[in-house]
Each structure stands twice: as C-alpha cells, then as structure tokens.
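Thread: "does anyone have the structure for this chain?"

Original post by V.I.:
We have the sequence but no experimental structure in hand. Need at least a predicted one for the grant figures.
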Amino acid sequence: MWIGTLFALAAGLMWGLVFVGPLLLPEYPAALQSFGRYLAFGLIALPLAWLDRATLKTLTRADWIEAGKLALVGNIVYYLFLASSIQRAGGPLPTMIIGTLPVVIAITSNLRDHARDGRLRWRALTPSLLLIAAGIGCVNHAEFTALRGDPQADFARYAFGALLAVGAVACWTWYPIRNADWLRAHPDRRPRGWATAQGVATLPLALAGFLLWWGWSAMQGSDFALPLGPRPGFFLLLMFAIGLFASWLGTLCWNEASQRLPTTLAGQLIVFETLSALTYAFMLRGQAPGALTLAGIVLLVAGVAWALRAKPEPIAAQAHAG
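Reply from O.Q.:
Generated one for you, tokens below.
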C-alpha cells in the first residue's frame, strides 16, 4: 500500500511538470510548446516501439487511425489548450479546472455508459459537485482580486484562458473514455503496446504540426526567432524533460501504483497532480497561496475524493431497489 502510494505521488510530481512549461516559456507560442513536447515524446517512444514491435505488427489500419485520433485529441490538442490557458490565466485557475477531470470523466461515463458499467446516483455526486464548484470559485475570486490590483491586467485574456482550460478538460474527458472503448473491444491486446502505438502515432502528427506552424509563421513575417525561439537550448531541454518525465516516467509510475492499489484509492490519488502543479506555480511566483486559495484547494480535493468514493450500481439493482 505504501509503495503504491509513493508511486502515485511520484506520478503526480512528474505530471505536474506539464503545467510549468508555459510559465517558464511565456514568450513561446502555445502551439510550438505543444508540438515540441510531443515531438520529444514521439522520439522517446521509438525505442519502446522496437521493444513492442511484435504487438504493433498486429494492429490494423483502423487501429492506427484510432491511435492517431487519440494522440491528436488527448496529446496535442489537449496540451495546446492547456498551455494557452496557463499563459493567459496564470497557473492556479487552469490547474484547478483540470483538477476536476476525475469527476467530469465519472459524470460523462455515468451518462454514456451506465447500461454497461452501472449508474452513479446523482444524489451521491451532488455534494462533491458543490464542493468542487466552491473550490474553483474561491481560487477564481483570489486570482480575480489580484488582477484588479494590477493596472495592466487584461480581464478578457484571463476569461479566455479559463475557457481554454474547459476545452482542455473536454479533450481529456473524451480521450480516456474513447481509449477505454478500444481496450474493451480488444481484450486480447496488451495495454502497453497500445500506449506505445499512440506514442508512435503522435510523432508524425507533432512533426507535421511543427512544420505547418513554422511555415505559417514565416509567411506571416513573425518577429519570433524561428524555428526554436530566442532560447533554443532551454526550449529543447525543457521539451525533452517534460516528454521524458511527464509523458513516459509519470505514466510508468502510475501503472506501478495502479497494480498495487485499489482502483478507488488510485483514482483519488490523481489529486497529487493538481497539488504538485499548484505548488510549482506558486514556487515560480515566489509566494505562498493566500487563505482563500488554500480553502479552494482543500474544497477541490475534498470534492474529488468524495465523488470517487461513490460506486456505480447495476441498472437492474437500482430498479429493484426502487
């Protein structure tokens, strides 16, 4: 149990790094950061593809198309939204919005797959939703108050950043549900090989996106230093660090945790990612979070933990109980 919890903590610390990149590279377009991160991850996936080559050979053309869709939405578009959001709204609010993912996924699955997986009672979810809404409201109020004290603040930019974070949540709500559909439809396939296939599919998509962005920027006469920006060495180092630690090592640690912990507990420990990202954001600001922000974080954690304790009930059982 303790080893599993430590692996989950390590995964959260790694995943929290993805929220740091946009803060460390504020002058870099979010598109370049997204393409750069997944170019790095795609290159890291190539040795894994060699190890899983026997599994990859069994995938059909339809399987590779599905892997491409998952890679596009769950990797590139998701991080494009997230990086854009953090650059516009700062670190804390987008991190809190992303922190609702376990509950949003559970609710979406409850609406979509209740006949297969059982239904969560809305009465059991309502308290957690109220706690989460209150938590996000607290952090938003704290950030908004800080903005009002800044004469150069751009409230429209902040609001658009919050909206982009919702877009990131939508991407990563679609991704795990669609990914689970494929895994359930192919019980004979190894999950590790499928994850590797998505990594391989990410590489050409990220490369094509990078080349298109480069060409478009050049035609627009952008002042941005093409192709790798004003700090190419730091940019490459950070992209490969995020690709290695967040995309690969973080997932490896999470898989180790998932093998050792009950699913319900593992789901609650995803909150380590949110806490790590918030910690990094305030460290970069050089300040501690205020009382209202801390209260919001506690409310979010409590809401997610409450929601993940609820267990789906088979439809037949609910009908009988009624």
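V.I.: this helps a lot. Residues 2-321 form one domain.
O.Q.: and The mean pLDDT is 88.
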